[in-house]
Fold these 2 entries.
Entry 1:
Amino acid sequence: MAEPSPNIAGSDTRVSPSIGGIAVAEGRSAELEALRLLEDAFGAFDRIAVSFSGAEDVVLVDLGARILGSDLPVFSLDTGRLHPQTHRFMETVRDHYGVAIETLAPDPDELVDLVRDKGLFSFYRDGHGECCAIRKIEPLGRKLRELDAWITGQRADQSVTREGLPTSQDDLAFSSADHPVKKFNPLANWSGRDVWDYIRRREIPYNPLHDQGYRSIGCEPCTRPVGPHQHEREGRWWWENVADKECGLHAQNVAEPLRIIDR
Ligand code: SF4
């Protein structure tokens, strides 16, 4: 395991070396809890990685890098429909932390079939499920067959589908009988304000789209800015019901858990 980064205290001046030599600002219990969970997860699983979407879950990368430094394993789903700003931001994060980010692309044959048969915007007519299945779920399932655990930036306050989200859980969607997969959600109990307090306090990079009114950032055609009194998820798949706003990455958040890995 790599030595922790020497820059672990960020811009904080009052620190308490209370977790394995990693400095944590006083009074930051959520941060401490997340660091402890990550440290335990990294200790328990060799085949584990952070899922980074190019949005505010850069906090996960920052927390993870405080423990593993540039050895932090990170992957991202490049759906082919991300904003150019998100691609550039991924590069910024790669440079800032010195981490490798593995980008996962959709299966080209499935993509060719979808676009040939239904065009580039079928999700507006048919719902986002089919396109997300090809551009996100299949690549993620492929990656999770190599891993025993993954780490997400999900928060309970993001959506009605995420209420009661635990900080660790068996991944019912991507586990199979002979290959259980664990999912860790270190930010489950963080609010959006906690995330932004952390980003500002530690002066870490963030996707510039956030300064243009985007709060929850996904693919360009399925993401739009929200107003000051709108919930962040109102900017995602706005033409669909709120209870349908999971893309299958976290299928067990909806009422009937879905086994995806054997599809
Ligand atoms: S978010 Fe939209 S463009 Fe991206 S994979 Fe899902 S349906 Fe397709």
Note: The longest helix spans residues 29-44.
Entry 2:
Amino acid sequence: MFNKKRLVSGFQEQASFHFQEYSDIAGSKSISTFKRYSMNLHTIESGNFKLDGGAMHGVVPKSMWQKINPADENNMCSWAMRCLLVETDGRLILIDTGIGNKQDEKFFGHYFLHGPHSLEGSLRQHGFGMDDITDVFLTHLHFDHVGGAVKRDGERLLPAFKNAKYWSNKDHWDWAVNPNEREKASFLKENIMPLQESGQLNFIDLKDGEEWLPGFKIRYAFGHTEAMMLPQLTFKDKTILYAADLLPSKAHISLPWVMSYDMRPLDTLNEKRRLLQEAAENDWLIYFEHDNSVELSSLALTDRGIKAGDVLKITDL
Ligand SMILES: [Zn+2]
């Protein structure tokens, strides 16, 4: 399904090319070179689930949040699990994997999976198969982000992407495999250990804002969980922040909207303030993993703070 020919023709038709400056210090002179890279992005909807409305909106009263994210009779709201596929220079990088399908009925009974989408189906719609994925980038290892990374094969648990390298970071990994009691229910051993046992696990060792690949920088946030990684992508003439669980939905752009799930809510507040300021000043777009209807939004600097701007889709860019 995915081969070089398709990639080449795909790039001619639709991918964007970028020239990026690289600086190198040689002796006392700074040498700048331009490296060309190409990138294409595909929105991959992996399905919808439900989470408690109160937990998702933290201290915000229901009278406010229910107008935006209406709750069902059990006070649960519906959320997307929206992954992103980055096609760049011969690599197919999947950012997050949704909840997957290997848990038992009792587990899924808590999360009310619904909607027409699945990870495999969405990849197929875009012309890709599971075995085409070369890299799986995991923002963090909570079950709604990493569940689809591992599949059940009879009695065995195996990486769902057999040809992929899986990417986390050491600080987050250590945190996830020795979880605290409050976060333990989000870190399921069956989603995590098979990645290591397969030998497909790799750690990213970069500082905040450093580039992992051309056009693909990594930002860190520590409030939701330890060392969550947010991809910052340069695509066409835009910068897109894949906001993961720092800004799970458009409504969470508002500073006090911090999830009760967060381990360090005041750190989340500061991280939101800082990153949203940088994003708004530089006209970034925010990509929402969990917003049920909004994929992408611009930001507006107003005298009442930073607000959501235009609602977009990747296909609009
Ligand atoms: Zn999440």
Note: The pocket of zinc ion is lined by residues 142, 144-145, 245, 290 (CB under 6 Å).
